[in-house]
Amino acid sequence: MYPDPSRIVFGPKSLAYVESDMFAYVAEEGVLPVLIPDLPYHRLEPILEALDGFVFQGGTDLAPQTYGETPIVAGRWPGDPYRDKYELKIMDYAFRKGKPVLAICRGFQLLNVYCGGTLYQDIATQLPEATIHRDAQKYDTLVHQIDFVPGTSLEQIYGRLPKPIVNSVHHQGIKTLGENLTILARCPVDGIIEAVEVSDAPDKNIIGVQWHPEFSVGRSTPFLDPLKLYSYFLSKIKK
């Protein structure tokens, strides 16, 4: 988060943060989560070398200019180009070194953009016939069904579930699919892509989901078990 005079705490300062559910989720199975500082690359690389895998969390929108577009509505949904640049250099490191990646919500969209894809800047504006994917009042209690693509990793993780349910906290989504990405799941109502993996990643160790699995830890069905997805990610690290 960058300086904001209207913010009560540390208004004139930049902040690095992790939402608490995310930290708790990553800390499962004895994993030590590390918040990576934004440093010049010559100082950042030794830190990245010490890490076994990377989780890209949710948060602010990606800036349209990051994927070669201009805002569809001036002044709306400007995104965060500074965070984009910071996270893309970390993602580039993970790709080059073959490190496992779990990309969540914004991270899922970042993965698509890294691979050359584009985004709907606002689903409700650009796809008015789409189902509701974000409700500020319901937030992570807003849910919808997804359909797994048969034979892909999500079906291997969860089996053939009749109606998988996920939370939905996003107003942007994949428009043009990035190169070397395989679709794992879609929303059956409008076809919005909900999960992908990198086709040529070693041992299929780079996966992204549009929902927030960390928000569903400890909740009963109908949500997909978030720990099954995380265990899959950890299995790629252990290899």
From TrEMBL:
Keywords of this entry: Glutamine amidotransferase, Transferase
Biological process terms in GO annotation: polyamine catabolic process
InterPro entries: Class_I_gatase-like, Peptidase_C26, PuuD-like
One Gene Ontology term of the molecular function aspect: transferase activity
Taxonomic superkingdom: Bacteria
PROSITE patterns named among the record's database cross-references: GATASE_TYPE_1
Gene Ontology CC, one term: cytosol
Protein name listed in UniProt: Putative glutamine amidotransferase
